[in-house]
Every structure is written in structure tokens, then in C-alpha cells.
Amino acid sequence: MILRPDYLEKLKPFIDVKVVKILAGIRRCGKSTILEMLKTELSSRGVDDSHIITKNYSNIEYEENFNAKRMYDELKGYIVDEKKYYFLLDELQEVSGWERVINSLLEEFNVDLYVTGSNSKLMSSEISTYLTGRHITIPVYTLSFKEYLSFKNDNKSIKDCLQDYIRFGGFPLVAISNLDEKSSYQIVEDIYNSVVVNDITKRHNIQNTDLFNRVVRFVVENLGKTFSANSIVKFLKSENRTISVETIYNYLDWLEKAFVIYRCKRYDLQGKNILKTQEKFYIADQSIKYALFGFNPTSIASMMENLVFFELKRRGYEVYIGKNGDKEIDFVAVKRDEKQYLQVCRELPKESDREIANLMAIKDNYPKIVITLDNYASGNVNGIKIVHLADFLLNK
After folding, report:
1. Per-residue pLDDT at 124
2. pTM of the predicted model, to two decimals?
């Protein structure tokens, strides 16, 4: 089991607080392991095992004729005294009407509820009705570089391990297995196919799966680039494929809600408002792109952006693309009264390069950082920090 103490620390303040704790993220990112760690934590606090109830609703026993009523009756049956019961419920979105079950348990019994899910639409569709003000959502991502290093024992340098991390990603099953490239990408492709088939294609009854898959591949190919639904329509038209803008919007929405892609909106530094155009998308794990298209060293720069984006998300920042007049900042990271500006480039930039010049054009005193893979990256240029990607990922 890969220990992920950062997530346990996020859960600890809410233990015994009467809110539903929701862990949400792409399939196979490690949510079940976090529940196992939580169970160990509860036991260490003296909770009797008979009062810790774990269920995985992706198991085949729950596939047919299992509904919200049966779920409620089953869970209620475990409660036989007045002591508190802890329910750890995995992949709960598989049960239609789960929100009503959770709401009833919360209102009727002395319970503490923890649930996981792999589809944000299902995880939120009825929350506004049944769980208003009584739930918190903790996003779960694939392994950070820090987590990746914590169980690697191959005697490689940190920077060599970073190259492996960029190439093979952070899905726990791949990370703990000593597999060759072909086998690693096969596992990732199977995870991806499971998400696309189970969480999107079947759930939304997509008939033209070939066209849907072509749209997905276009998005993955263009990670970190700005494009619009109209540009996808035009591209597919050049391949003699017809699709509406509305359908494209639906596909992107469903990919987001299955945690395959994440949207990064554009923020106007001068107007101080979020723009509705020229967004970018990043993928839940960089290995998905390589599993679909093969590893290509020329794509490392965009994968660096992908890693930085998710590291900022893990640290609790809202992340935007920065627009400063006609200049672009790769990321503007905001958390309450904190803000930082970040540029990402493969090689160490010169003072005249875009990465430095665009940051220097920002007229405030928030931290400005350039992140690079150059082995000599350190220090600063005119107050702008230059850091190696490994140092950024490991040092908060």
C-alpha cells in the first residue's frame, strides 16, 4: 500500500464532524488506499472494527438489482447500538440515488460518512438538494513527485527519477510495479479505456464512439494549447467528419466530470476578471498522453506544464492562465491572499527571453518564478526566482 499522508492530514480535521467527506478523482488514482489509511487511523483512535464499515460499490455483487433502498437497508443493518459508526463507502456513484441514502443515514443515526467517486457530476447532482452545507469535497490526484519518490528504492538520483516520473506518470499501480514501457502504458491505457467506456460512453449513451474517441485524442494531443470547440469542429471537418459545437461542449464537459481533463481558465491581470475564451486543458496524468500516442521527447515542455498545474492544484491553489496585455503568463496561482506567477520552460531562459520578460512586465510584488529542467537552474534574475522542476515539486 502506498501511503499518502497528505490526504489523511486533510481528512483528520473533519473526523467526527457531521459532514459527508467526499474524495473525488479519476479511477485508480488511489482513493481506496486513502480509505484504508483512514480505517487504520480510526482503529488507532480506539474505534472498534465492528463500527468501521467499508463497502466498495464497484464490485460485481452490486451491479444488478442493487438500488438506493437496498443500499439503505444494508447499511442500516450494521447499526445495532448507540455508538458512532464510521462508513467508508468506495465508488458510491455506481448506486443511483446514493445522495438520499447518505442524507437519511446522516439525519437518523450517529454516523460519520466518507465516500469516494470517479464522476463529479454524479457526485454533485443532488448534493444541492440533500446535502447543502453538510459535505466537503477533497480532490484526489495521481501521485505527486514527492509521493512517487517515497516508495522508490532503485538508487537513482532525484533528477533521474524525475525523468521516469515525467515518462510513466503517477498512477499508483504503475508506480509500484517494475514494468517496462510497453507494459506500463498498457496499464494506463486500460485505466483510460475503463474511464471512457464506464464513466462516459455508457453513462451518456454515446452512439458514435469513434467520433467521440477522435475528439478525445484531439484534446489530448493539444494539451496546454488554447483551442475552441469551433476549432475542433473545423479540424474534424477537414477529416470529413461532422459534429456540432454543442456536442463538443458536451464531450469536454463529460471528460471533465470523469476527471480525465481539467480546465484552466484565463485571467486578465489588468482587468482583474476571468475570461470566457482561450482556455487550456490539462490531463489527469501525463502517462495517458504517452499511452495513447507513445513517448515523444518533444512533448516534455507541455508535460512540464501539466506537472506544475497539478502540483499547484494539490497545494490548494486556484490556477489560471495569465493575460497581461498582449503577454501571457503560464500560470497565475491564487490562494486567499496569496498569489504567485509562474513560467515553465525546458531550458534555462535568458533575461531577454519571453519567460523572464513577461514576468518583469507585471507591476506588483507577488513572487515570480521560472521553472525549468536545466540542471544549472538556481538563483534569480531581477528578483525572479529560477528553480529546477524537481526542486519546485519537492519544496513547498
Report:
1. 58
2. 0.93
